[in-house]
Write a structure and sequence with these properties.
The chain is α/β, with parallel strands linked by helices. The protein has helices spanning about 30-45, 65-75, 95-100, 135-140, 155-170, 175-185, 190-195, 230-240, 260-275, 300-310, 325-330, 350-370, 370-385, 395-405, 415-435, 455-465, 475-490, 500-520, and strands spanning about 5-10, 20-25, 50-55, 85-90, 110-115, 220-225, 245-250, 280, 315-320, 340, 435, 440-445.
Length: about 525
């Protein structure tokens, strides 16, 4: 009898036949009781076979014995002991037990037996070896554990599961919110089942542990999520802290006590004051969002619109727990950079490692576009100049107005830079036309001759120095002229333009046009 262990509740008459016994005294939270009281005792037990009474409480229909079997099989901390043979002592047969509860499916898995609640049941069990490689095929695929019906909502389950997965993957142990979430779900049978279904794999094929790489670019990130305090903020803070050139802040806001109008208004103020380069935004920020079927009604969509009104160059990455492809693809209508799907209990297609790799890619792409914020500001300042109230500056207005649109498009990066450079060069030609009569080689207003070679570069430098008294732009003008000639007259050499150059040239154009506007050529 030393190799046998009995788990009972004063309802096995022959309990004295067992030297190893665990008296089951359930509390209100049955999963927590099993995890914290029964599993640790099994971990230290030397038993080779476990006997469990089917009813372990005063309510026979609760059949906690079946629930305990699931816990044993799904508790990874038990190691190989979770594969021990288990005998369910019952006054009912397998057929009746299955009529009473779907949890009785476990009785059809390997090394689980049903025997009468009598001393004659001892010694009649044929013990078979249960190997770990059989676990999925001969146990996991034959059972199903439903989400607890008394839980707050399916959204809460999904959120806690996703936080657990991401935090475990990053090995975060110093966050109070994450530790509370970890402790809260660690004992729940449903989450043990999910973890068995979706094990966290953190190793590469060659056996080297995978460490998620942080984004490489620099910039400011603002995180907006109604679940920020439950662990998400700590997850992203931990992840982005690996890059000291990233400034990360969370909108620490009580969403539940605010209506949509106030939420959007307060976010508007925060975005304006913080001026982020990228916003990491949850799609659903209020309880009503989870009931809405129209994507335009989601608070996250309204926030995107507010952000793009402030500055359309602020990049937005959406976080969403939805698995509906139609909703996710519609997000691109709102000029988002991309989206990250949070882990979901019923979606086996989401891989944590791939999620972090995709997140890194999106953040690097988004922060790489931060210069566009200033491009947008410069473009608006230029177009607000008094100069552009005149009809004869229509072509230049078009060229300037197209720079941001070109740079924010999805065409090849170098092509974007080339087209933007050509627009800036065209503006320089238009400025020349304001001052110089090309055919007669004279200044338009004074009719005095101008002795320059017939090239945009030489003419604009003459206009800058002789007419506008602007100096220090020769190097940038030469760069633009050289690159423009390389595009118009290709010689096989690769043209390589950087975003910093585009920004420098656009700032130069703004300074020139400010002077042109005050100079009022041909007035």
């Amino acid at each position: 009898m030393n190799s046998r262990l009995l788990i009972y509740n004063d309802n096995v008459s022959f309990f004295k036949k067992f030297n190893s016994k665990i008296a089951f005294k359930p509390t209100a939270d049955i999963d927590e009781y099993i995890t914290k009281n029964i599993i640790p005792q099994l971990k230290t037990s030397k038993a080779k076979i476990i006997y469990i009474k089917d009813n372990l409480s005063s309510n026979y229909l609760e059949l906690y014995g079946l629930r305990l079997i699931y816990h044993i099989r799904l508790s990874q901390e038990l190691g190989n002991k979770r594969f021990l043979p288990i005998v369910l002592l019952s006054d009912l047969d397998t057929y009746l037990l299955n009529r009473l509860t779907p949890m009785a499916k476990v009785l059809f898995t390997k090394n689980i037996f049903v025997a009468p609640n009598s001393i004659e049941s001892l010694g009649k069990i044929e013990i078979k070896e249960f190997k770990e490689e059989e676990f999925e095929r001969k146990f996991l695929n034959l059972i199903e554990v439903e989400a607890p019906k008394d839980y707050l909502s399916h959204h809460d389950i999904s959120n806690e599961w996703a936080i657990y997965r991401w935090a475990e993957f990053l090995k975060i142990n110093d966050s109070q919110a994450i530790n509370q979430n970890r402790e809260k779900i660690a004992s729940m049978l449903y989450f043990k089942y999910l973890l068995a279904r979706n094990p966290i794999t953190i190793k590469k094929k060659n056996g080297i542990q995978f460490v998620p790489r942080p984004p490489e670019n620099s910039g400011k990130i603002l995180y907006i999520d109604d679940e920020w305090a439950k662990g998400w903020s700590d997850i992203f803070k931990h992840y982005f802290s690996k890059n000291k050139n990233i400034e990360f802040e969370t909108l620490e806001y009580n969403f539940k006590d605010s209506n949509k109008f106030k939420i959007i208004s307060d976010i508007d103020k925060r975005v304006k004051s913080y001026n982020p380069d990228l916003v990491l935004l949850d799609l659903r920020l209020t309880q009503s969002d989870h009931k809405s079927k129209e994507i335009d009604d989601f608070t996250g969509i309204k926030v995107i619109k507010i952000i793009k009104e402030i500055n359309p160059a602020i990049q937005v990455v959406i976080l969403s727990a939805t698995g509906k492809s139609l909703i996710l693809e519609k997000l691109y209508r709102y000029n988002i950079l991309g989206y990250i799907k949070k882990e979901h209990p019923t979606d086996n297609s989401i891989d944590t490692k791939e999620s972090f790799e995709h997140l890194k890619e999106l953040i690097d792409t988004g922060l790489g576009k931060k210069y566009l914020k200033e491009i947008w500001n410069i473009q608006n300042r230029i177009l607000d100049l008094e100069l552009f109230e005149k009809e004869n500056f229509k072509q230049m207005r078009f060229e300037i107005g197209s720079v941001f649109e070109i740079l924010d498009s999805n065409i090849n990066m170098q092509k974007r830079y080339i087209y933007a450079m050509l627009s800036i060069h065209q503006c320089l030609e238009e400025i020349n036309n304001c001052y110089i009569d090309d055919k007669r080689a004279v200044w338009i207003d004074t009719q005095k001759p101008i002795n320059v070679k017939n090239s945009t570069k030489n003419k604009i430098l003459e206009v800058l120095t002789k007419r506008l008294r602007l100096y220090g732009f020769e190097e940038k003008i030469n760069e633009i002229a050289h690159l423009r000639n390389g595009v118009i007259h290709p010689n096989g050499r690769e043209i390589n333009i950087r975003s910093e150059q585009i920004l420098d040239w656009f700032e130069m154009l703004e300074n020139i046009l400010k002077k042109v506007s005050s100079d009022q050529p041909n007035h």
